[in-house]
Amino acid sequence: MEKIRRNERMSVMMKILSGTPGRMFTLNRFCELFGAAKSTISEDLDALRRVAGSFDLGEIETVTGAAGGVLYRPLRSRESSLAYISDLCRELSGSERVLPGDFLYYSDILSTPEIVNRMGEILATEFAEKKTDFVLTMETKGIPVAFATANALGIPLVIARHSSKVYEGSAVNINYVSGSGNIETMSLSRRAVKENQRALIVDDFLRGGGTARGMVDLMREFNVSVEGMAFVMSTLTPEKKRISGEKSLMTLEVVSGEVPEAIVRPAKWLEA
Question: Structure pTM?
Fold first, then answer.
């Protein structure tokens, strides 16, 4: 086998690690892949760790012990997260995106992979210490950012639906009060989660908190604890939501007038 140069080894290792966040790789795997000694691989990883930290590219963590190895977490600094979300807020503010009912059009944002992946990394950074087992969202608009968050955390995505599907087997169904005040149904396959797991709820929009409250109640039916709730955007009104302790990336205020105007700001916790 042709000898592999150090820059080549490091490029391949970074690609492998960043492509599967949260997954543990043993040093032996890299040793066998490159035909190199453990000491050589360890030096390469130390260099990658320094570079990733210097350029805010995430964290490369080494775990010692028999079951140890190395893994990558796409964590972002608070400063870079605030700068990125501030740019998004400027793009979303104004009158052009305001919809009837004081809603905001930002489906284009939620369907842009680069933006969604970055938001997922920011949320994953905030909830990384919670050690959750899966991300829960409600179909449909919240799926992209929930998927990105789950990917960044290295855990599965679970999707609650408005009705059960035959191909998902038996399901648990609950009724909940939506943000519009209507009684709706939420369904989740019994095989989707297990008792005593820990969930992170991620969705796109929070107004009154009815759907989020429904997801919390749904997890209670499975005996699953909710360790956090995160949203892309929340409205300033109503001030009192049906949930508490949630975190959103942005807040929305629509100023009424002849031409309604949206004021979108980064959430206060990003500025702390």
Answer: 0.93
